[in-house]
Amino acid sequence: MITASGIKRQPDEAIRTWQQELAEGFRRPEELLRYLGLSDADLPLSAAAMRDFPMRVPRSFAARMQPGKADDPLLRQVLPLAAESETRDGFVMDPVGDMASRQADGLLKKYRGRALLITTGACAIHCRYCFRRHFPYNEQNAGRLSWQPALEAVAADPDINEIILSGGDPLSLADQKLQPLMEGLGSIAHIHRLRVHTRLPVVLPSRVTDKLVGMLRAFPGPVTVVLHVNHSREIDEEVVAAVQRLQETGALLLNQAVLLKGVNDSVKALSGLSEKLTAMAVSPYYLHQLDPVAGAAHFEVNDDRAVALMEAMRERLPGYMLPRLVREIPEDLAKRPVVSTGK
């Protein structure tokens, strides 16, 4: 089969399913290190960090890591290290105030006109800086039993005109589970827009199935897909092909990255990411300052450094390739732009 973009693609039924690929991912740090020609002597692994937040890495993502390189920016995002056990003031379990914004099980409402559904606690990859690494998914999960309570809560609030599907990662749900939710949301008259926040098309490109493309295309209102790419080396040919399939749905494609020490905190890394995203028609929408979640303080880049990086990017890139540098603060009415403190 050849798509309109000219890329050859096998029918979904002729390839291994994305669920199989997901099940075959790395779950033990030692196995991932051996795959990369490294050992636990090269990096300070932490059993305590693993117990707190287990590792999960798809093999398709690991294949983009550089063998023998302990400071690989992709590896650094997923490997449980001893630094996660360090405590620092201000780094807390619920850094963005999720629990205070609950409207119903798995339904969060922070901003006017928009609500977020925690569709699942599952992800294809466990990013060590995840702001929801301590979230009580067993208690706050809109899809735990059925979608009906969440759909009823959304239908009862006419102020909500946009729904954001989040998690976990909403695309870690099987198509059969996701379809009734999207159809139910599409039937609510005051829901005008749908937004899907996902990392799966990047870390597991095979997730973009014909069924998923059809569901996104069938939604009655505008759809925005917000990807999460932090480094240009996360983007390979399979990711480009998956993104092109998403573009076939007519969805607006955006990216939000997190500024991470040792991963992308350089002008070269950030500019390279913006260039690669723009080349595949994905807008580099947000660059987030790290949410101060307990266990992730070692990824922090201070505001002055962050602003300096943005200014340096401004000198080398056109305006449409510059993300907005922001942070989320509990109870704020919108994301807050980050400015230099001048200290």
What is the structure about, briefly put?
The protein is of the alpha/beta class and 343 residues long. It has helices at residues 18-23, 29-35, 47-52, 59-62, 73-78, 148-155, 175-186, 200-203, 210-218, 237-247, 267-279, 303-316, and strands at residues 102-104, 107-108, 114-118, 162-166, 193-197, 223-227, 252-258, 283-288, 324-327, 336-337. Helix 7 packs parallel to helix 9.
Set down the secondary structure blueprint.
Blueprint: H1 18-23, H2 29-35, H3 47-52, H4 59-62, H5 73-78, E1 102-104, E2 107-108, E3 114-118, H6 148-155, E4 162-166, H7 175-186, E5 193-197, H8 200-203, H9 210-218, E6 223-227, H10 237-247, E7 252-258, H11 267-279, E8 283-288, H12 303-316, E9 324-327, E10 336-337
Parallel strand pairs: 3-4, 4-5, 5-6, 6-7, 7-8, 8-9
Antiparallel strand pairs: 1-2, 2-3, 9-10
CA distance, first residue to last residue: 58 Å
The CATH architecture classification of the largest domain is Alpha-Beta Barrel
Shape: globular
Helix content: 25-40%
Order of helices and strands: HHHHHEEEHEHEHHEHEHEHEE
Radius of gyration: 20 Å
* CATH third-level topology of the largest domain: TIM Barrel
- Counted by DSSP, the helix tally is 12
**Can you tell me the CATH class of the largest domain?**
Alpha Beta
Given helix and strand content, the structural type is alpha/beta
Report the CATH superfamily of the largest domain.
Aldolase class I
How many distinct folded domains? 2
| Unreliable segments of 5+ consecutive residues | 1-14
Give the number of DSSP strands.
Answer: 10
Strand content: 5-15%
Query: What topology, given as strand order, has the largest sheet?
Result: 1-2-3-4-5-6-7-8-9-10
